[in-house]
Specification:
Length: 226
């Protein structure tokens, strides 16, 4: 009796569609395997089998598994950044509205089930796979911070903000928004994230940041200690 051919025997046969569609299919296959296996147990062979392509096809695009995981996270972030920084005329929103939009976008991305699961995987396996931290945490966060820093720089040039270091301000604002939700994902019981009043959290972070970023006249503000 002829046995059925396993799925990976079809590897190497190119899928129909545009280059962008094929890349989307590969990223989705990688997402599926990373979520199912974790980072350590996932392999390029398993991802190739899920995508129905050869490992050679993957290595033509990505140097290693860490690059592929970074692409998975990057695709999630790029979707949000495009909607937030490009589709919206964010420069002409009132600062409170713009920062609230940014904060809500960050929170919603972390609360997405796939994003939350990937974050836990990256956080728990980073020490075993330092290349993963370099590719995912640094590269992707830096890309987001660069977009935010550019926004802060333009607002400072317009006199809306008074920021000596827009790069540092972007880093600190993201920490104000993301630190609590990251702690919740890592250390709180499952489901606890849904019990937090995240709109209130974002509003508090925005108000605190704006108090520090607003221009002040000479002599106004916190007095130095004697």
């Amino acid at each position: 009796m002829q046995t059925a051919q396993p799925k990976h025997c079809k590897a190497g046969r190119p899928r129909r569609g545009t280059e962008s569609e094929r890349l989307d299919a590969l990223i989705q296959a990688a997402t599926t395997i990373f979520l199912k296996e974790g980072y350590g147990l996932a392999s390029i062979d398993k991802i190739a089998g899920e995508a129905g392509i050869s490992t050679r096809t993957i290595y033509e695009r990505f140097k290693n598994k860490a690059d592929l995981m970074a692409a998975v996270v990057e695709r999630l972030m790029d979707r949000d950044m495009a909607r937030m920084f490009e589709s919206q005329d964010i420069d002409h929103l009132q600062p409170v509205a713009a920062l609230t939009l940014i904060g809500e976008t960050v929170v919603n991305r972390f609360r997405d089930p796939d994003s939350a699961a990937l974050f836990r995987i990256i956080a728990t396996e980073a020490h075993r796979f330092p290349e993963l931290t370099d590719k995912v945490r640094c590269t992707n966060r830096q890309r987001f911070e660069a977009k935010l820093s550019t926004y802060f720089r333009r607002q400072t040039e317009r006199g809306i903000f008074a920021l000596e270091d827009p790069d540092r301000a972007a880093h600190l604002f993201l920490n104000l928004i993301a630190a609590d939700i990251q702690d919740c994902l890592l250390f709180e019981p499952a489901g606890s994230i849904g019990r937090v009043d995240w709109p209130r959290h974002v509003n508090s972070a925005v108000q605190l940041f704006l108090f520090g970023a607003s221009p002040r006249s000479i002599g106004e503000g916190v007095q130095p200690c004697n």
